[in-house]
Amino acid sequence: MEITKRPSARQRILDTAAKLFYSRGINNTGIDRIIADAGVAKASMYNHFASKEEIVATYLRGIREQFGLALATSTATKTPSYDVPFRLLKMTLANGDFYGCPFSNALVELPDSDSVKQEVTAYRDSVLDYFELAVDGDSVMAAKLMVVYDGAFLNCKLSPSNSTVDSAIEIAGLIVRDC
Description:
Layout: H1 9-24, H2 31-38, H3 42-48, H4 52-75, H5 84-94, H6 102-109, H7 114-134, H8 139-158, H9 162-178
């Protein structure tokens, strides 16, 4: 018989918050719901996080770190390619329920939060840096690719489909070839 270790209270809070924030929205998810669904005591939650805003920032940091790892993994064996962030978006669509970019969603819901703004900026900088690597340091071209990437996320939120991402990859390819 295999014994599986139960995740820590902190991890259960983060996992639960991530699911709820992404599917229901940050403002529609209360602390009491997170505590109940995570199966932790309120005191335990506050031992790990000072506020809901801290949970949100930690949730975004985790997504950003996972995304950065996926980008790094994609370049471990080959040269960076402008289409990799789009292909990661396609993989996200394939995983099931898609509610848009968690960073954009968080910024819309918490526009005055400095910690959310920091995480959104860090994420966007990482994507932009990757695009710059993929296009040999051309910051103008990288900025154009970022606009297409943002548009792909928004269009997928409105109508999730692989064809939307394929179109974005095609447009991005035109940018790369034309510059």
